Amino acid sequence: MEEQLEQIKNWLGIGSINIFGLPMSGKDTTGVRLAESIGGKFLSSGMIVRAIEQETKQGLSHGGKLIPQNIFFEWVLPYFEREDLWKYPLVLSSIGRWNGEENEVMSVARKSGHTIRAVVELQLTEQEVIERWEAAKLLGDRGLRHDDADPGVFQTRIQEYREKTIPVLRHYQELGLLVPVSASAPRDEVFANVVNALANFSKRAYDFAPELPEDV
C-alpha cells in the first residue's frame, strides 16, 4: 500500500480529492486517514458548517436538509484560499453536495492551486445505510450527529443525497473524474480499496484535468 500511496501523492501534488457517499458510508473516516497518509489536509463541508453555526449561533443545517447554496458559497468555498493550506494536497468530504455547486467548487479549487483531480464515490445501498444507522444507534457507536437520532431527519438526509447529490456525481462521471468504490466492507478494507482505486486511476489520468465552462 505504501507504494500506491506514494503514487497518489506524486500524481496529486497539491490538488484535491473529493469524497462523496450516503450517510454512514465512511466519508470522514476514509478522508481523514487518506489525508494523513499522503501528508495532506482534510476538509469537510459538514464540519465547516457546523463550526460556523456554533460560532454565529445560526442553525441552517438542521432537519437533514443541505444548507442554502448562497451560504455554502459564502462559508465553505473561502477555505480553499486559506494560507495554511497552500502547500498541501486536500482531501475533501462532500464539498459541493448540491447539484449546481460542482462547477463553482472546481473553479475555486483550481484558482487556489488545489485542482480537483478525482472524485471518490463510496457506494452503499440505502438499505445498507439504514442497517448501519440502526446498528450505530444500538451500539452508541460512530458519534452520530445529535439530529441523526430522529429517523425522519436521517431519511431526509438520504433523500437530499438522492435528489441533489446524485446529479453532482453524474456530472463528475461525465468529466471523467469519478472513482467508484464499494463501502460495504470493514473500514480497513474500504480504505485499502480506495487507495488501490486511486492509484489505478492516477496511472490512467496522470496529466488529465477537465475543461471547465468558460463562464465558471
How would you explain this protein's 3D organization?
By secondary structure, the protein is α/β, with parallel strands linked by helices. The chain has helices at residues 2-12, 27-37, 45-56, 69-75, 102-111, 126-139, 151-174, 187-204; strands at 16-21, 41-44, 90-93, 116-123, 178-182. Strands 2-3-1-4-5 form a five-stranded parallel sheet, with helices on both faces. Helix 1 (2-12) packs across helix 8. The longest helix is centred in the C-terminal third of the chain and has 24 residues, at 151-174. The chain starts with a helix and ends in a 12-residue tail after the last helix.
Key attributes of the depicted protein:
8 helices; 5-stranded parallel beta sheet
Task: Tell me briefly what this model is.
The chain contains 8 helices and 5 strands. The chain has 216 residues and is an alpha/beta fold. The radius of gyration is 17 Å and the shape is globular.
Give the topology string: H per helix, E per strand: HEHEHHEHEHHEH
Number of separate strands:
5
Helix content: 40-55%
SS summary, helix count = 8
Strand content: 5-15%
Alpha-carbon Rg, integer = 17 Å
| Low-confidence spans | none
Largest sheet: 5 strands, parallel
In terms of quaternary structure, the protein is single chain
Quote the average pLDDT: 87
Q: Globular, elongated, flat, extended or rod-shaped: what is the shape?
A: globular
Terminal residue distance:
37 Å
Query: Would you tell me the structural class of the helices and strands?
Result: alpha/beta
Strand arrangement, major sheet: 2-3-1-4-5
